[in-house]
Amino acid sequence: MKRLTRTICILLTMFIFVSTMTFGVSAASGNLTTHIGMVDASALRLRSGPSTSYATLAYASEGEYVTVTGKTGSWYQVIYNLTEGYMHESYINTYTVKNVELGYGSVNGSKVNVRSGPGTSYSSLTRANNGEKAYIIGFNNQWYKVIFGSHIGYIRSDYLTLTEIPYENNASTKTPLFFVNGKSTGVTPSASALNGGSTSASVTRQQIVDNAKKLLGTPYVWGGSTPKGFDCSGFVQYVMNLSGISLPRTTTEQYKVGTYVVKSSLQPGDLVFLQNTYRSGISHVGIYIGDGKMIHASSSKGVVTSSLSSSYYTQHYYGARRVV
Fold it and tell me: What is the DSSP string of 123-143?
C-alpha cells in the first residue's frame, strides 16, 4: 500500500512538472480562439445570443475581423472590437491561419512560454508574465503570432486577452499596419519596426526615389503597370515592388496601407494622394522625392515630377502614407 501511494505521488508530481513546463505556472483565464473570422456582409449584426431574437450589440462592416471562440448551432461566438457576442456563420469567412494585426494583448498567466512555432513541441524563446503586453500580428491554429520584446514567436491564444480593436477594423486609428487584408504592407513585422522603423529605412527610401526616377518619361497607359506604360497606382506599385514593398493595385487600397503622415513631415518614399481629379474621392497617387516634389504617372505627360506647392496640387492634396 505504501509503495502504491508513493508511486501515485511520484506520477502526480511528474504530471504537475510537465504541465508547468508546457503551459506556464498558472492556468490561462482567457478564451481559446479557434479561428480568425472576416465579415462577409455590408452590415453584419453582432447579437447578444445565438439567434435573431437576441438584441443587436453592434454592426460590423465587410472585411472587418473578429476572433472566433466557439459555436452554437449555426452561430459563431465571437469577439468584435472587444465586445463578445454572436454572428451567423453564413456571413463569416473563417481562417485557421491568417496574418492579421490585432494590436496589443495582455498576458493572463505567469511564466507563459513564447514559442518558436505554433505548438508545445516548439522551443521556448522566452517567457512572459501576467500583465505584460504582446503585439499580435497573426494567428495559426489556436496560437497568436506575436512580437514580444525582441522576439517574434507564438503564444497560445487563451493566454492573451485582447486589449485593442484590431488595427485593420474601421473603428481603429492605430498604427503601424504590417498587414492589410492579410497582405503585407511591405513593412516587416519586428520590434524595431514597431518602435519606429528599421535601421535601413533611409537607404530604402533613396532606392525608391532612384528607381522611380529611372522611369521618367514612361508613357501613361490606363491600367498600365509595366515600363511599357503606367497609370498612377500601377507606377507606384511597380516602383515599390522593386524595393521589396508589396502594395495593393488601386489608389483607394494603397491609401489604407502604412501610417498617416502630415504634409510638413513628408520624407522621400512616402506616398502622396490627391482627391477629386478625374473623379470624386481619392483619385491619384505619387511618390514624394524631396524638395516639395513628387514623381507620378500623369495622364497627360506620363511619368514626371511635379511640385506639391503648385496651385493645382495644393487644391487637390488629400494626404500621405508612409510604408517604409
Answer: PEEEEE-TT-EEEEEEEETTE
